């Protein structure tokens, strides 16, 4: 019994240095002894807390998970990124086609106009030299214009105003920085339509009204007509121009009103820097039937200013609306997927 107790106590007590060496020697030569000794190994060689202290760090896996959440790689994003070069190529193709179409329109209309002006006397060209054709073309075109004013004055003035307002908007777009053949055809068409349908006809009757209202030829009539022109008529026509352009752009009445309210006074005062000097000739020198032609020549400058103001206000308002809409939309989090 004493021997058994001593054996148990020796097995439970830590091994001495010689005993450890003897244990390692036997375990290296005897697999069975190694198995038995492993099973019966004292608790001193097995520290359960070492598993917790030597566990793998978790932070790399967490970082990878966070990266995946921050930058999700989905099939939709891959398709969107792959479609960006295609979209840019489509935009370039559309720009090139628009440029070619605009160039064709400008060259075609310009060639037609020059041909009409130069061939005004084609019935009498028999025996004429090219110098004679160029010499008599301006005079005979002027005679044809005066004849049109006698037969159909309203239509003649409508055509002139439509051409001038189209050219004025084209000049305005070039002044804004667009290349010569990259103009907005729809915008130019709107301006020309307003000039053709409204400015030519309304101006014809307005100048007739002015002559009936103030028929006197005294010197003081000219300043009175200029004052009336730059107060009443300028306010009426600028308002008509902005309202009709807004309707042609399919804008809401509230937007049209806000645009008119913002530009009414600046445009009226801007006209005072140009038109009083031009109207000294309009009401003091030019006959009533020829006044619209002179005014339309000055209108090339004025329509450029009008069109620039109108489209700048419209573009700024559209950009502000788009920014408000984008800001009001809630941002989509990657975790929402």
Automatic annotation (TrEMBL):
Main localization (coarse): membrane
Protein name: Peroxisomal membrane protein 2
InterPro entries: Mpv17_PMP22 (IPR007248)
Coiled coil location: none
GO annotations of cellular component type: cytoplasm; membrane
Subcellular compartments: Membrane
Annotated spans, Disordered: 63-93
Keywords: Membrane, Transmembrane, Transmembrane helix
Pfam families given in the database record: Mpv17_PMP22 (PF04117)
Native species: Buddleja alternifolia
Bilayer disposition of the protein: Multi-pass membrane protein
The UniProt record lists the keyword Transmembrane helix: yes
Annotated family: Belongs to the peroxisomal membrane protein PXMP2/4 family.
């Amino acid at each position: 019994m004493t021997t058994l107790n001593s054996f148990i106590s020796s097995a439970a007590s830590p091994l001495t240095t010689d005993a450890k060496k003897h244990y390692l020697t036997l375990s290296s030569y005897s697999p069975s002894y190694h198995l038995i000794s492993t099973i019966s190994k004292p608790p001193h060689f097995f520290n359960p807390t070492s598993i917790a202290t030597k566990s793998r760090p978790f932070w790399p896996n967490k970082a990878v998970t966070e990266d995946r959440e921050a930058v999700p790689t989905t099939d939709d994003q891959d398709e969107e990124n792959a479609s960006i070069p295609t979209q840019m190529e489509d935009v370039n193709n559309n720009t090139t086609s628009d440029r070619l179409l605009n160039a064709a329109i400008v060259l075609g209309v310009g060639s037609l106009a020059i041909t009409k002006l130069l061939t005004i006397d084609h019935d009498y060209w028999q025996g004429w030299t090219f110098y004679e054709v160029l010499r008599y073309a301006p005079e005979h075109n002027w005679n044809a214009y005066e004849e049109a004013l006698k037969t159909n004055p309203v239509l003649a003035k409508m055509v002139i105003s439509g051409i001038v307002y189209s050219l004025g908007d084209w000049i305005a777009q070039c002044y804004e920085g667009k290349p010569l053949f990259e103009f907005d055809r729809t915008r130019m068409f709107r301006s020309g339509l307003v000039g053709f349908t409204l400015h030519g006809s309304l101006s014809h009757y307005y100048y007739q009204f002015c002559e009936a209202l103030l028929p006197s030829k005294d010197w003081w009539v000219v300043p009175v007509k200029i004052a009336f022109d730059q107060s009443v008529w300028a306010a009426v026509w600028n308002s008509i121009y902005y309202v009709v352009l807004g309707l042609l752009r399919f804008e809401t009445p509230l937007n049209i009103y806000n645009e008119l309210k913002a530009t009414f006074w600046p445009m009226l005062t801007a006209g005072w820097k140009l038109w009083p000097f031009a109207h000294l000739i309009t009401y003091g020198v030019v006959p009533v039937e020829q006044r619209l032609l002179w005014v339309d020549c000055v209108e090339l400058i004025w329509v450029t200013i009008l069109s620039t103001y109108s489209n700048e206000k419209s573009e700024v308002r559209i950009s502000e609306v788009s920014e408000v809409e984008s800001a009001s939309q809630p941002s989509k989090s990657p975790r929402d997927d």
